[in-house]
Sequence to fold (471 residues):
Amino acid sequence: MKEEKIELIKDGKRLDGRDFEDLRPIKIEVGVLKRADGSCYFELGNNKALAAVYGPREKHPRHLQDAKTAVVTYRYNMAPFSVDDRKRPGPDRRSVEVSKVSRESLDPVILKEYYPKTAIDVYVELLQSDAGTRTAGINAASVALAAAGIPMRDLVSSVAVGKIDGEVVLDLNAVEDNHGEADMPVAMVARTDTITMLQMDGRFTKDEFERGLKLAKKACHEIYELQRTALIEKYSKSVGEGEE
Amino acid sequence: MYKVVVPGDFISDEVNRAGEGTYVDEGKVYAMHYGIVNDKGEIKVVALSGKYVPTNGDIVIGKIVEISFPYWIVDIASPYEARLHNSEFAGTRRDKIEFGDMNKYLDLGDLIVAKVLNVDALMRVNLTLRDEFKIGDRGRLIEISHTKVPRVIGRSGSMIKMLKEKCNCFVFVAKNGRIWIKGRDADMNLALEVVLMISNEAHTSGLTDRVAHFLDSFKKNREGDRE
Fold:
């Protein structure tokens, strides 16, 4: 198989005009779904993720209940129209894996022991996808969980770093991901710098890995501030409506 | 003014004042909920949303969803269902309730006012009945988030008192966020509107005054229509 080499960096800039350490533009909206207990819409460049949280509610079937804590489920799902070639609907090997690692990235911050025997269900739908969807999903889910009033230690923020044309860069888009040398999604608690998810596809040298992780940490702090602001603004907005 | 926090926000260094809705990590108090800080006495974070968890002594409005001898299974707008033992009727009736007769006393879909007798470690909830327990056909039931119940009641009952007087209705607010209103149709419509208004604007300041203003202007309009 022969692949045409694509030049990913031109004149020190990336294809979409970003610098190496730039995030794509982010937009966060809280409480977009009326019937969900908590919800959040999260945009990261061309990624559009919608998270809905239901619960704590009765866990069914009964034998899956945990007498001591709540059980968290996480469903990551890509819409058939979210990518260029239609994605075959339904769970596949990839989305099962993403669901699992995403759940485990949020698990440590949720204070599950406050709601024994219940279920906390998180559904994340990707309406449009442009690489880094699992990180967008985790960011959305974390805000939606807080909005649902679920007791948590912290919010989780997530971002990916990668390597293109030999350079370590932040937040790959689809072209960079497909033609780059490495991709490493990271999820972490910004306050304590605790990493709750770390995956890597491709190769980094030890030095590149450390530089990448540092980049990701810095970006997670930025995203955390945006998540926090979105939640607090949601509240002040509803105050404004009340005062009409 | 109110201070809004999100989970993980630092609140204070005074660990021994840490109360509900907070947690302590390395000698500092952090928020556990997305909510509002209450700094009087204990430091508390009052959540803006969330599900009702029953505690001993709560008065709740429940709906009979199943009969499983000798218990009625009751939905109390919570992740945990509650149960009511048929001996609860023994006080009013000496004779025992037989296996097939439970629906004669309380049938599926019936609404009751009950008190939470106890909640055990496995989150099994037992209810006990109060004197006036049955909610008949008259009146209406509204369900709001239990986090907003304190605002509907108001400081030392000021809001609920006003609601009852100005709307000329019987209003009963249960701890689980269910509200029972009884009165004339027009009065109930008004009471319903006001309750929803309180629920939507629960976290704003000066709410009692605004509700009073709303009720007064409504009354004026109605009198104006008659003339």
In short: The CA atoms of residues 11 and 17 of chain A lie 10 Å apart. The mean pLDDT of chain A is 94.
